[in-house]
Amino acid sequence: MKGRLRVALLTVTAAALLIGAGVVVGGGKPLPVNPDKGLTEDQVIQRQAQARAAFEDRLAAWFKNLDVAKLDLRSLPHAERLVSLEPPAATFADAVREASVVVTGTVSSISPQEDGTIVTLTVDATLKGATTSSVSFMQVSTLRPTADWSGTIIADSPGTPLLLPGTQGEFLLDDSGVGDLALQDVAGAYLFDANGVKTQPLNPFSQQLGGMTRDALVKATESALK
């Protein structure tokens, strides 16, 4: 998706290696033993590949059994994913013009995946693109199991935290080139609350747009499209 889903999952590698090593740490328990001690380089590579594959299989099974409806999403702890963020456009007007679709609406549901989350939006207004009552798009933020696999955390992209059901805003979406839509990195989500428009910490247009009214943001978007 134009480089927007290039996610480096250090958690996968780290957890895979810990699984392969059978490491238990903390609470006065023994420190981990180097699992590669005495192995040749080829054996190390093979062991690490097997550990990574085992972790990925377990993660796939975890997602298969994940029931989002049973989670209190707003009470879950957050952690940050290591993500390669694509630089935003030079101006908000450029970001709007580069987007394939721009809509306002409310998040109606989310479907977390291993590499991101499919967000479904009930559309209030279509500012750019074909008029529709609902649209789905991918964002990099998703869910992950806790280190002991007993719970769930939200793994946020530093660009835009996971969009939860009920969230309202204006969203700038890019075409992936294969018919799917993806939220623009960093500058794609402008959330609405009682204080006006809320931008994300890394958004370079925060000073310009943060705190303005919903109507003012829509007018700025429409102006960019003229």
Chart the SSEs and their pairings.
Elements: H1 10-21, H2 41-65, E1 78-80, H3 92-98, E2 101-113, E3 116-128, E4 134-139, E5 142-145, E6 152-156, E7 168-175, E8 181-183, E9 189-193, E10 196-198, H4 206-209, H5 214-224
Parallel strand pairs: 1-6
Antiparallel strand pairs: 2-3, 2-7, 3-4, 5-6, 7-8, 7-9, 9-10
Helix pairs in contact: 1-2, 3-5
Q: The CATH topology is what?
A: OB fold (Dihydrolipoamide Acetyltransferase, E2P)
Strand and helix order: HHEHEEEEEEEEEHH
The gyration radius over C-alpha positions equals 20 Å
Number of beta strands: 10
Distance between the termini: 27 Å
Please state the second-level CATH architecture.
Answer: Beta Barrel
- The count of domains is 1
Morphology call: elongated
Helix fraction by DSSP (H/I, runs of at least 4):
25-40%
The largest sheet is: 7 strands, antiparallel
Number of helices: 5
- What would CATH call the class? Mainly Beta
Beta-strand residue percentage: 25-35%
Low-confidence stretches: 1-26
